[in-house]
Amino acid sequence: MTGPYAYSVSQLAKAWGVSDRTVYTLVASGQIGHLRIGKTIRVRQADRDAYEAAAWNAPAVPPPAPPAVTHAFSVSAPTGRVSPNSAFRKGQKSARAR
């Protein structure tokens, strides 16, 4: 374990980069487990981990890529000519052979 066993409100607020008031609000609303001894509040590492896991919003899974578009013939990009080995050229050759 890298952090302390239990955090004070100020320690937890600093670790999250939020105000103490934000942590007090989470405690008061019961959204995060805590231990209260008199006026002192402590949040265990396990309670912090549980809250973070429940509150974490993972990015949505991106939609699958569209299928590759296939053409009946291929055109070479620089010249704009139809490739001699393309299906289009093969079709022309077979039509001439008839």
Automatic annotation (TrEMBL):
<feature type="domain" description="Helix-turn-helix">
    <location>
        <begin position="7"/>
        <end position="47"/>
    </location>
</feature>
<dbReference type="InterPro" id="IPR041657">
    <property type="entry name" value="HTH_17"/>
</dbReference>
<dbReference type="GO" id="GO:0003677">
    <property type="term" value="F:DNA binding"/>
</dbReference>
<dbReference type="Pfam" id="PF12728">
    <property type="entry name" value="HTH_17"/>
</dbReference>
<dbReference type="InterPro" id="IPR010093">
    <property type="entry name" value="SinI_DNA-bd"/>
</dbReference>
<feature type="region of interest" description="Disordered">
    <location>
        <begin position="76"/>
        <end position="98"/>
    </location>
</feature>
<protein>
    <submittedName>
        <fullName>Helix-turn-helix domain-containing protein</fullName>
    </submittedName>
</protein>
